[in-house]
Amino acid sequence: MKPCCAACPAESGKIPPTILLLYGDLTRDMVKIKKIIENKKQFLDLLLLADEQENMIDKYLPDGDLFALYDGDLKSVCVVVPINSETCELKNIATYEKYQGNGYGRALINFIFDFYRNDYKTMLVGTGETPAILSFYESCGFEKSYRVKNFFTYNYDHPIFEGDIQLVDMIYLKKGL
Ligand SMILES: CC(C)(COP(=O)(O)OP(=O)(O)OC[C@H]1O[C@@H](n2cnc3c(N)ncnc32)[C@H](O)[C@@H]1OP(=O)(O)O)[C@@H](O)C(=O)NCCC(=O)NCCS
Q1: Ligand 1 centroid vs 9 CA: distance in angstroms?
Q2: Considering the entire predicted model, what is its pTM?
């Protein structure tokens, strides 16, 4: 288990439903990021913003690490899964619509880069061909890596649209940790 705050009951062997990982950076006293270890589906409304088909989320959520960012109340979540001994993958990241553009997504990504730095060499993230999301990831330090043709048309039971754009291929980006 990753280290967490000194007062965390996990230190005494009692695993709490959430583990407080970070609280109060210098600029945003109220920002907390928690690793959620029980009842991960309570965050389904947010997870569905990034991945609209629940049975696709069910494929990675049980074994994924789920992080929730609170600034007062809940703002964002993300899920990371191991791929192999060197690589992990960011599977889902979402911020409530009314709070987007306030830096929460980037803060969560910077946090997971640090969190996994000693465990993996590379983090992957896959997304549809959506320019805004691709440039969000690139601005966080990811670079385009490869494409899985027809991922969305093959794996989802209905056409997936991001605005006017129908998602077909999955574009993978990677970042060295
Ligand atoms: C992608 C997402 C998680 C980013 O979270 P966020 O909290 O808004 O991220 P930030 O506020 O840290 O934004 C970081 C940068 O990306 C830009 N950005 C974020 N989302 C954007 C969007 N949908 N369209 C255009 N630009 C966006 C921001 O303007 C910001 O740029 P800046 O730092 O130059 O001002 C959020 O937009 C979201 O939840 N989208 C819906 C779910 C989704 O599509 N998830 C990704 C699935 S692959």
Answers
A1: 34
A2: 0.86
Residue pLDDT, tens place only, 34-81: 999 999 999 999 999 999 999 999 999 999 999 999 988 999 999 999
Which residues form the domain of 116? 9-176
Question: Per the domain annotation, does 162 fall within a domain?
Answer: yes
- If you average pLDDT over every residue of the chain, what do you get? 87
Nearest CA to ligand 1 atom 46: 50
Contact 116, 155 (CB under 8 A): no
Residue 135 lies in a domain: yes
CA distance 125 to 114: 16
CATH code of the domain covering residue 83: 3.40.630.30
Q: How confident is the model at residue 13 (pLDDT cuts 50, 70, 90)?
A: very low
Best residue for ligand 1 mutational test, from 52, 133, 140 (most atoms within 8 Å of Cβ): 133
